[in-house]
Amino acid sequence: MIQRFMPRAASVDAGAARARPAGIRRAATPLVALVAAIALADLAFALDSIPAIFGLTREPYLVFTANMFALLGQRHLYFLIGGLLGQLAHLAAGLAAILGFIGVKLVTTALRESGVSQLGPVPVPHISTGVSLAVIAGVIAAVVVTSLLVRGRRTQPEVPAPVAGPHRGGQS
Question: Residue 158: which pLDDT band, with cuts at 50, 70 and 90?
Fold first, then answer.
């Protein structure tokens, strides 16, 4: 697709975005394709988060600003979470719990707005924005605390057991 707008250079010049091969005014290197792919992925994930935001609020201004901040900070957040996954042992489980909660909130909101107030004998709950934020903050706090406790136990020095067997080092 990029070749429609700019010819492609066959060689890469140490991370340069453009090259000047013989006979062509300007040409794009594979770095341009990489940056375009990352930008399109950011846009796709930001647009994908719109239903999740509508699960929290119906205010159009909040939905718009949340998506703009998602576009601006998503790549940075991706690398932050990637780094934290190594530091916080329970982060993946906590993020899964948060996504599951948001999914339940989306379903209950859709049911209530379509006029369904109960499923059989079970009433469909209304989950407010304050409750949603409290659950998300609580899960994140629990993940951080439990991960740090587990990490603290792992970093305590263990006393090495004596090695049985013949002595090495030339002495008998």
Answer: low
Residues 112 and 123: beta-carbon distance below 8 Å = no
Interval 8-38: pLDDT, tens: 666 655 555 555 555 556 667 777 777 778 7
The ranges assigned to domains in the chain are 74-156
Q: DSSP labels for 40-58?
A: HHHHHHHHHTHHHHHHH--
Which DSSP string do the residues of 103-144 spell out, in sequence order?
HHHHHHHHHHHTT--EETTEEPPP--HHHHHHHHHHHHHHHH
Residue 56: closest CA among 11, 99, 6? 99
3-class SS of residue 27? strand
What's the token pair of residue 117?
């107030």
Nearest alpha-carbon partner for 144 in 86, 77, 94: 94
pTM of the predicted model as reported, rounded to 2 decimal places? 0.54
What are the pLDDT digits (tens) for 73-82? 766 777 777 7
